[in-house]
Amino acid sequence: MDLDAKKNHPQRPTYVSVDDPKIIGFMDLKESVYETKIAILGAGSWGTALAMVLKDNGHDVCLWGNNASQIEEINTNHTNHQYLPEVIFK
């Protein structure tokens, strides 16, 4: 290997910021990463908490469950008393 060629080769960055407008092609990635539609299967404590975190981070979240009364409670009261009794969804 030619050592002079290795010295003249620019170093690759160790990270890439999606906020840097000089990076070509990453602006589309930024929009798709932060505005993702996500479906969560299971409206238990873990699924509900995950849905809340994703929603708080700007994602479009759809929470699926198999208990009709629980889903009705989530949709109307914005609560899930069976699994997260002290939490009110935004």
Please render the helix and strand layout as text.
Layout: H1 3-8, H2 26-34, E1 37-41, H3 45-56, E2 60-64, H4 68-77, E3 79-80, E4 84-88
Parallel strand pairs: 1-2
Antiparallel strand pairs: 3-4
Protein described:
- With 90 residues, this protein is of the alpha+beta class.
- It has helices at residues 3-8, 26-34, 45-56, 68-77; strands at residues 37-41, 60-64, 79-80, 84-88.
- The strands form two sheets. The chain has a two-stranded parallel ribbon with strand order 1-2. It has a two-stranded antiparallel sheet with strand order 3-4.
- The N and C termini lie far apart (59 Å).
What is the straight-line distance between the termini?
59 Å
- Count of DSSP H/I helices: 4
Average residue-wise pLDDT = 77
Output the helix-strand order: HHEHEHEE
Spatial strand order of the main sheet: 1-2
Low-confidence region ranges: none
Helix content: 40-55%
